[in-house]
Amino acid sequence: MRQLFxxxxxxxxQISVFSQAKYPLEVKTFKLNNGLTVWLNEDHSQPKIFGAxxxxxxxxxxxxxxIAHYFEHMMFKGTEKIGTVDYTVEKVLLDSIAVxxxxxxxxxxxxxxxxxxxxxxxxxVRSAAYVIPNEFDRLIAEYxxxxxxxxxxxxxxxxxxxxxxxxxxxxxxxxxxxxxxPVFRLFQSELETIYEEKNMYDDFIGSQTLEKVTERFFAPNxxxxxxVGSTENLKNPRLSEMKKxxxxxxxxxxxxxxxxxxxxxEEVIPVLEGTFGxxxxxxxxxxxxxxxxxxxxxxxxxxxxxxxxxxxEALCWRxxxxxxxxxxxxxxxTGLLSNSNHTGYLDQLTVDGRxxxxxxxxxxxxxxxxxxxxxxxxxxxxxxxxAKSLVMHELDRIKKxxxxxxxxxxxxxxxxxxxxxxxxxxxxxxxxMLDLFSEGKDWNSYLDEIKTIDAITKDxxxxxxxxxxxxxxxxxxxxxxxxxxxxxxxxxxxxxVPKNAEAKxxxxxxxxxxxxxxxxxxxxxxxxxxxxVQLAPKATLYVTPNAVNTIFTLDIDFQKGTLESKLLEPxxxxxxxxxxxxxxxxxxxKQLQDLGSSMSFDAENDKFTIHLSGFDTNFEKTLVIxxxxxxxxxxxxxxxxxxxxxxxxxxRALKKSADxxxxxxxxxxxxxxxxxxxxxxxVSEIKKLKGSDLLAEFKEITGVECDLHYCGNLPxxxxxxxxxxxxxxxxxxxSSDNPVYREPALCNQPTxxxxxxxxxxxxxxxxxMPGDEDLPLKSRxxxxxxxxxxxxxxxxxxxxxxxxxxxxxxxxxxxYLLAPYKHRDRRGQFVTMLSTQCDKTxxxxxxxxxxxxxxxxxAERVDIARQSIKNEINNxxxxxxxxSEEIASLKREGYTADxxxxxxDAVSGMDVTNxxxxxxxxxxGRPYAYIVVGNEKQxxxxxxxxxxxxxxxxxxxxxx
Length: 960
Known about the structure:
Elements: H1 2-19, E1 28-31, E2 37-42, E3 49-55, H2 67-74, H3 87-105, H4 110-127, H5 135-142, E4 145-152, E5 157-163, H6 168-177, H7 187-203, H8 207-218, H9 231-235, H10 239-249, E6 255-261, H11 265-275, E7 298-305, E8 313-318, H12 327-337, H13 345-351, E9 357-364, E10 369-376, H14 384-399, H15 405-421, H16 426-438, H17 443-447, H18 449-455, H19 458-468, E11 473-480, H20 506-511, E12 531-536, E13 539-545, E14 551-558, H21 568-575, H22 585-594, E15 598-603, E16 608-615, H23 619-632, H24 640-654, H25 658-671, H26 683-688, H27 691-701, E17 706-712, H28 716-726, E18 751-756, E19 762-770, H29 777-791, H30 797-804, E20 812-817, E21 829-837, H31 841-853, H32 862-875, H33 883-893, H34 900-907, H35 912-922, E22 929-934, H36 941-944, E23 949-952
Parallel strand pairs: 2-6, 7-11, 13-17, 18-22, 18-23
Antiparallel strand pairs: 1-2, 3-5, 3-6, 4-5, 8-10, 8-11, 9-10, 12-13, 14-16, 14-17, 15-16, 19-21, 19-22, 20-21
Helix pairs in contact: 1-15, 2-10, 3-4, 6-11, 12-19, 21-27, 23-28, 29-32, 29-35, 30-31
């Protein structure tokens, strides 16, 4: 009977997937005359287009040099036409700079290198006289673009952004032009920015650990080298090698153009032929990529990780590359060990408390793969050998086929649900399109993979597990410690401040002549976009139709969060380990998995959420299980140690992260004891808790006012009836005052709050300033315009002055945080953030401080700031699953209609005087505080004291 159920459901799912394939899953593939491949996916559900150019060249094609990553950065610097007022004169200087970089790379003498770098700086300053900085970024924003970015992986480089459909011609013109004749201008300053990026990654916990393990696992394959290259190669870049890299790989036959969103293919194709068809023809040369060396039995490796107390082990086997016929089989094999429903054999070890954590995963790159198991033994008491023995026993069960047909089939069902989910909206579908194209897969073949899943047998999985989980593997164990960081000293270069920062190139003027298609922004309609049902006085159901697939989601948002309940975080952790009075944890999870459903819990500042997902055919069956859990969840005191141990590790890791410590310090300065890091339980307090305390809190939480968000294919009445039958909505009786408002602390005098982190490469810096109460509505609109002008995107004042001109940060932003509309009579706050190499701390602060004290007023930038707001409104229009959450959130803030319409109307009539007025009334001359977390020995503390009285803070003072 159970097998018949699975066969029926699998057949139904297969039909549903392919019945949807015509729209919006259809991807039209064709080639331009120059050989460039184009993938077009029409989807009119949101008024935006995701556009990307993918080049099949990445870090593996320039091992350890960082050239692919360098090149990604330089692709934002413009071309012979974009970003210059006179390229003919500029080129002479740029050619001289390129020669000097070749000389630098060939020189090891320190004094001679210093002289060459000073000459490069002198030439760069001279060349900057002809540069229009960030013109490409500004043009993208001017013509409807947002989220402009790029990424370099081992296998490919991708350039992408979201843009409004009426600017399709301008987008195609700009993004093809950048690929024809890119110019490597302002390279010296960008090189410093890349150093900052490397420092940032090195400071992230586990980043260097992963780098060392990757090197050991993949050698001699180029995947062994870091994506950004070695520090030694970063010191010695050759622009001539970058030019060769461009000539070799940036050819039409090695590229893909991907568009996903609101357009019509028949109108777009001629536009693309006339623009991207100009890119140079050609194909990349055949690569000879060495395979990773085979393991000979169990090979051991110790990796440093700066988290005490915690043990960790990774067992790493050779996996398969992308497109390998065993790829899906290995995914299912690892899913039998651990999966999102936590029903795998390793999951059971974790839930039962026999291990602290265990997880299996499989990853396939283009030329090699890894299949691995991560093991975290129980704190203190468990040895590596004992933990590993438990894992190997469960792995042997998979290799012997010791798993039920039900578990196997339900896991395949979960795989199918995941396939559908990742294709359902523009954001997730476009990401999948990029992955598939980079792997050389065909779109329709990917859609057919669901048939492949159906065809996989239990015996196939057993054979795959036995084939890859062999006695030849890398056994990585953790030892507490840090790897040395190759931080480069700050250069003594003159800042590059172009004279033509507000100029327009002749190319930009010609671009203005291209007609803009007519289009109206789309706003949320609170009545038409969702159907609202009042289930009970304190329970509101929002129903949104799903026209794409047969998957439902139901989020039950109880309007009480961690800001109001210290028990909520440990309670959420505890619930994820429990069953009911009639079902054990594993029985509960298996029932859900058999239905193709899932249930999880999440705690945020303002709410606690029960997430349910599955297929509409099993909606009420899923609700029965969830309702039973809410009513009859069973206390299990033995699970409390796992809650305590998890909290203990989290707290230990917190103080090892400069980013986390800086934000915790900012929270303390802003909110005192109401900081999210202080308004919580300590490990010792959690240790004293009983499971019954947490379940009592769960009962109280589920009685708080809630919004229920259903998205699927069932009628609203049917959904409402099913919920009422299974969840006691009448018992929801406690009112909520969300969103919660925390009063920001006042600043009386300039103060610098400082935490010393001796192992940190970067200083994390925040500026904090409390604002006024009762800000007028017009000023709130002016504040939004100010944010885009001052600290929003790549065209903002702080980005250009701190990153672009002076290379003092990789991350930098600034924003005036308005109080929620419901609390608009309360105080807002101005917060800026940047991260910089420790020895540049006071340099960066000097520039930031000057911008806050005397903001530059540039009328030429207001149009871009205004357009950026319009772009964000248009391009951030929510997907069908996001609509109800957005509408409910706006209602809770006190809005009766989409506020974006009034915002757009208001800023359309604003100019630089509105920005200046907001700055003068709300920021200029007010006392503020700086938060600095970094290595005290690398920071000029005397100069730091000139920014305010230094108050040194201990890590234990900012978190519990």
